[in-house]
Design goal:
Region (Disordered): 1-21
CATH superfamily: MazG-like
Number of helices: 6
Pfam families: MazG-like (PF12643)
GO molecular function: nucleoside triphosphate diphosphatase activity
CATH architecture: Orthogonal Bundle
Helix content: 55-70%
CATH topology: Helix Hairpins
Protein name: MazG nucleotide pyrophosphohydrolase domain protein
Keywords: Hydrolase
Oligomer: single chain
Strand content: under 5%
């Protein structure tokens, strides 16, 4: 079993138990070990985030709605990798801009609830 498969199966590393701060630290450590912080500014990271989002969309581009619903027209593993790239760049952007994502998300959901009421 390779390391990534082991991680995927380890319940202690799933979304329910991993704090956002831990994910931010993983990204920060990766960036720092490669001395990439010199390239990380809001412009570059937001562009990279957009590019990765485009790569994510490519997996669904020519599929029918049914193929997407059935999960038959794309590789779930490849989609997961692209989504991880998107999240990594979002976390890197939060790191350099010192944005608390948990607070930002909660605040945005308050606005969304007012803008899009249930009824």
């Amino acid at each position: 079993m390779n390391h990534s498969s082991q991680h995927a199966q380890d319940e202690s590393t799933d979304d329910a138990t991993t704090p956002v701060g831990e994910l931010r630290n993983i990204v920060r450590e990766f960036v720092d070990q490669r001395d990439w912080r010199q390239f990380h500014n809001a412009k570059n990271l937001s562009m990279a985030l957009s590019i990765e989002a485009g790569e994510l969309m490519e997996h669904f581009q020519w599929l029918t709605t049914q193929e997407v619903v059935d999960r038959s027209g794309y590789s779930a593993a490849e989609v997961a990798e692209e989504l991880a790239d998107v999240v990594s760049y979002a976390l890197a952007l939060a790191n350099i801009l010192d944005i608390d994502l948990s607070t930002a998300l909660r605040d945005k959901m308050v606005k969304n609830r007012l803008k899009y009421p249930v009824a």
